[in-house]
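Colleagues,

For the teaching module next term, I've prepared a clean inverse folding example: a structure given as tokens, and then the sequence designed for it. I'd like students to try predicting residues themselves before seeing the answer, so please don't circulate the second half yet.
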């Protein structure tokens, strides 16, 4: 009875909110097996792909643990680098959007600078392949998001710092929940591709400052696009 249809069923974010709300209310406690993908899809009245994306994001965030052949279980809270409370707060609260963009800029601009300093032919090829994939799938939101994620993770990896890479992975798991709603803005995908191209070109040239500037411009533009769709909130 506690699982009801959500209002914006096309957005995995709404499913994430609903699932984490149940966990925070202790309907499901650490160690509990949550209902199957099929059952959740029926209860929420959404497609199984929406449930799958939401559960996948919660696994990446460390809220759930996926066990092959068994299902998804609620994880015990941990004291990892980015705590569960911090990550959940960024994910679930519109009021934290500006703070999240600030964090993205601080982390990803430095990653882009380091990627340019550490540039390799393999890195440049991976970035260009991701951009080509984004151009090739203009109407497929999931494929576009996957290519976008690969682009940013490749840069985080190229920073050659495992903490940057870990934080970059966490950032992308949050991006996958929030940012797909901007795909319904007609110019979003074209502008995203252009912004990625500027970043990739600067990294390919080994231009650290230009790579950082291009990344900053992209993140601020992406944040602005999302902000236009998020309800006005009171900022602390």
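(Answer key — instructors only)
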């Amino acid at each position: 009875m506690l699982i009801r249809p959500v209002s914006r069923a096309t957005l995995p974010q709404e499913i994430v909110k609903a699932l984490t709300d149940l966990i925070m209310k202790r309907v499901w406690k650490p160690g509990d097996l949550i209902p199957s993908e099929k059952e959740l899809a029926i209860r929420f009245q959404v497609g199984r792909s929406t449930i799958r994306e939401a559960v996948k994001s919660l696994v990446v965030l460390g809220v759930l643990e996926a066990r092959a052949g068994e299902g998804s279980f609620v994880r015990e809270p941990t004291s990892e680098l980015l705590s569960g409370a911090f990550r959940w707060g960024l994910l679930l609260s519109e009021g934290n959007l500006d703070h999240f963009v600030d964090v993205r800029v601080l982390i990803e601009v430095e990653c882009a600078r380091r990627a340019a300093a550490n540039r390799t032919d393999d890195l440049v090829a991976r970035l260009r392949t991701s951009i080509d994939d984004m151009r090739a799938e203009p109407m497929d939101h999931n494929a576009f998001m996957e290519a976008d994620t690969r682009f940013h993770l490749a840069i985080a990896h190229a920073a050659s710092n495992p903490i940057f890479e870990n934080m970059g992975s966490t950032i992308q798991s949050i991006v996958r929940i929030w940012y797909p709603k901007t795909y319904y803005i007609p110019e979003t995908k074209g502008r995203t591709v252009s912004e990625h191209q500027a970043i990739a070109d600067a990294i390919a040239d080994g231009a650290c400052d230009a790579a950082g500037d291009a990344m900053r411009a992209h993140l601020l533009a992406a944040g602005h696009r999302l902000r236009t769709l998020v309800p006005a909130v009171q900022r602390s």
